[in-house]
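for the writeup, i need someone to sanity check this before i put it in the appendix. the sequnce is what the collaborator sent (i think, or maybe the updated version? ugh). structure was predicted straight from it, no edits. if anything looks off just tell me and ill rerun, i have time this weekend
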Amino acid sequence: MQSWLKFSRQYAAVFALTAGTAVAGCAPAISTQQEVQMGAQYASEINRQLPIVQNPQVHYYINQLGNTIARQADPRGIQYTFYVVNAPQVNAFAIPGGHIYVNRGLIDRASNLSELAGVLGHEIGHVVHRHGIEQMQRAQNAELGVNLAYILLGRQPSGVEQVGLQVGAGAFFARHSREAELEADRVAIEYMIATGIHPRGLVTMFETLIAERNRTPGSVEQWFSTHPLTEDRIAQISASLDAIPASRLNNLATNSQAYQEFRQRVRQLPAARQ
């Protein structure tokens, strides 16, 4: 059987072609309905290619947590769906329409509820503020330097892969700009507070990833290839938190028994079949 990485490479070329067609044929402004329809189409294909965890308890928890945050975040009434990918690499990404993917490798490193909620809030922020849609619209009639294989595999594609991947310039998963990342950080803080979760986990999660990058860069390469993260960015998040009145942060949750049980369940899952 082919490995899931090979499936991902095959899918990347197909996705790039179909995304390019969708972008070329859409109006200058993509409506919420169009966004949801496109997101559902691409999520369906992604879910056939990536090793999505099928454990009902894992699926229930990640969707319960994610949708609790999303209800505070997105006034459009989009139905969000969250997926755990059975991959040890650290990564998370969102596609327009409310589909958010988190690798088990990231959950393994999220030591408490607040840290995972920070990542989910950040990815929800990309959807709410339509950063992926903005990338698609800017990519009309142009080749993107970043493509799906680079996003999922954390590397540049080979020459053969590049031919197929660059045909479609509208891939959803292009690298977000620094401005988009900062906006997603900022709104994630507000989403977490509204949900009753302490936003400090956004900082500690990023600090954990930077520390791991300094020790063993390859283990978090996927994350940093798609989420430009620097000490300065963490400092900005910390400054934003320090500016919040302490009264707003009192009694917010940092961890829960339910989260620790979920994390342990994810850590005990068998590896994806190769």
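The first strand starts at residue 81 and ends at 85. Residues 4-267 form one domain.
thx in advance!!
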